[in-house]
Amino acid sequence: MEKKFYVYILLTERNTYYCGYTDDVEKRFKAHLSGHGAKYTRANKPVKIVWQKEFLTKSEAQKEECRIKKLTHAQKEKLIS
Questions:
Q1: How many domains does the chain have?
Q2: Dist CA 54 CA 21 (whole Å)
Q3: Residue 36: phi, psi to the nearest 5?
Q4: Any bridge partners for residue 9, and if so which?
Q5: HSE (side-chain half, CA atoms, 13 Å) at 1
Q6: In terms of Cα–Cα distance, which of 10, 26, 20, 22 is closest to 69?
Q7: Which end of the chain is more exposed for a tag (fewer CB within 10 A), N or C?
Q8: Structural domain of residue 16, as residue ranges?
């Protein structure tokens, strides 16, 4: 079975977005909730996963994560909707 990678966006309590990549979105979200996901999500508690997209390679996922992180809040909202 081929491993898949995902880029995801979380909505935080402060109405900000956090973008990351993983090979297991649910497991990663639980890590964020428990305070072990990322420095940003320790300070900005995640509420829910609002967007995710599947990729066949880690490299593709990382490139998309990098692209999304450069977007403005409004551009991320447009992507999500």
A1: 1
A2: 10
A3: -110, 10
A4: 19, 51
A5: 3
A6: 20
A7: N
A8: 5-80
C-alpha to C-alpha distance for 44 and 3, rounded to whole angstroms: 30
Q: How far apart are alpha carbons 40 and 18 in whole angstroms?
A: 8
Whole-angstrom distance, CA of residue 58 vs CA of residue 7: 10
Whether residue 8 has pLDDT greater than 90: yes
Contact 76, 68 (CB under 8 A): yes
Residue 17 tokens read as: 């977005």
Tell me the per-residue pLDDT of 9-62, one tens digit each, with 9 for 90 and over: 999 999 999 999 999 999 999 999 999 999 999 999 999 999 999 999 999 999
H or E stretch at 10: strand 5-12
Rounded Cα distance between 44 and 14, Å, is 7
Position 52, amino acid: Q
Q: What CATH number has the domain bearing residue 29?
A: 3.40.1440.10
What secondary structure letter does DSSP report for 20? E
